[in-house]
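To whoever is on call:

I kicked off a structure prediction for a single chain this morning and the downstream step that reads the tokens threw a length-mismatch warning. I double-checked the sequence; it's 295 residues and nothing unusual in it as far as I can see. Pasting both halves so you can look.
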Amino acid sequence: MTTIASETAAVYALGAPEGKLVPAGEDALWVAELGSGKPTVFLHGGGPGCTSWTDFAPVAPLFAADRRVLLVDMLNYGFSSVARIDGPRWTAHARRIAATLTTLGVTEADFVCNSIGGSAAVALAADYPHLVRKMVITGSEPVHRGRGAKTPELGFEGMTAWANYYGGDGPSPEKIVPIMERLEYWDPANVAPDRVELRYLYSLSDGQRMLASAEAWGEPEDLADKLATVRARILFFFGKQDIFVQNTYPILLSDIAPYGDVYLMDEAAHHMEEERPADFAAVVKAFLDSPVTNA
């Protein structure tokens, strides 16, 4: 990306940690690290301008107190490589994440994942089990059966968010705000101006603009069969007010996985890690720090 120096300077000025491009096979993924200890990989959601820092900034320091936090940005997000995905999308993301972790010498990591990051992590745990110890998956829809928004109207708004954001006059902070307020947060008053500005800056990349075209995402992929093979313990941690899923959906996922706990947090939506960081970290740490590791 020709403007990466100026773009990184802009997000660093807003508090983003310094990172680097790490080889991921034919591509490279952007990784920022904090702290030391057990490797803990954070994978972000799929909205315009999302990165692992934008999604997990409020909680990352809480985990970095005693863990090695790896904030990984997936293909076409943040400053990672730009490329159209050919074939099943989650398997493609998992392959690149696995290559990145191998380059960094990371194995048996814990994963904390939001939305599309959780789907990528399911594929990763199935295809590269040596890389995964435990997983926390929030707001993800890796299985096609049973998925669906709280209402058809909200579902349509979510499905058209990308096209609307990049259409018309193009990206702007003003257009990010309703995405965060209506689709991601439980309480719109919690959407802070600096979070909006970060999302806007990250949304300007070539990779993000390309994802406004549905074809760039790769083929849809139902991970039911792969989820059934995952031996790592999983916590399906969902917000009760998450507009993208029915509250019964994480139970369905738990029934498919060999071992899956379920936690439903009230007064919490798709980005509860941003709205309720202390509560989020307490639940996730309790799960990750418990001694039993495998189903």
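Update from on-call: the warning came from a stale cache, not from the record. Cleared it. Sanity check on the structure: The beta strands are 19-24, 27-34, 38-43, 67-73, 109-114, 132-138, 233-239, 260-265.
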